[in-house]
């Protein structure tokens, strides 16, 4: 695996963990509050979202970079 592909994969895993950790925490708290089973509900939401979110980040990050570059006039 090339260093660039390895970087992109690790970036997707790390970015996915950080974003999904925060978003599932907030949305679970908004939807159910800090109940006795909050941790179980949040863990389940995180696990499902991570499995879905990391591949989405992996495949869409290059598209987002190109779109952003064209919107701000930066080189791709």
Explain what you see.
The protein is mostly helical and about 80 residues long. It has one domain (about 5-70). About 85% of the residues lie in helices and about 0% in strands. The chain contains 2 helices and no strands. The protein has helices at about 5-30, 40-70. Helix 1 packs across helix 2. The protein is elongated. The two termini are about 20 Å apart. The mean pLDDT is about 95.
Main features:
76 residues; 86% helix; mainly alpha; elongated
The largest sheet, given as strand count, sense and whether it forms a barrel, is: none
What's the rounded overall pLDDT mean? 94
* Oligomerization status of the protein chains: single chain
Fraction of residues in helix: over 70%
Q: Gap between N and C termini, in Å?
A: 22 Å
The structure class reads mainly alpha
Give the CA-based shape: elongated
Compact overview of the structure:
This protein has 76 residues and is an all-alpha fold. 86% of the residues lie in helices and 0% in strands.
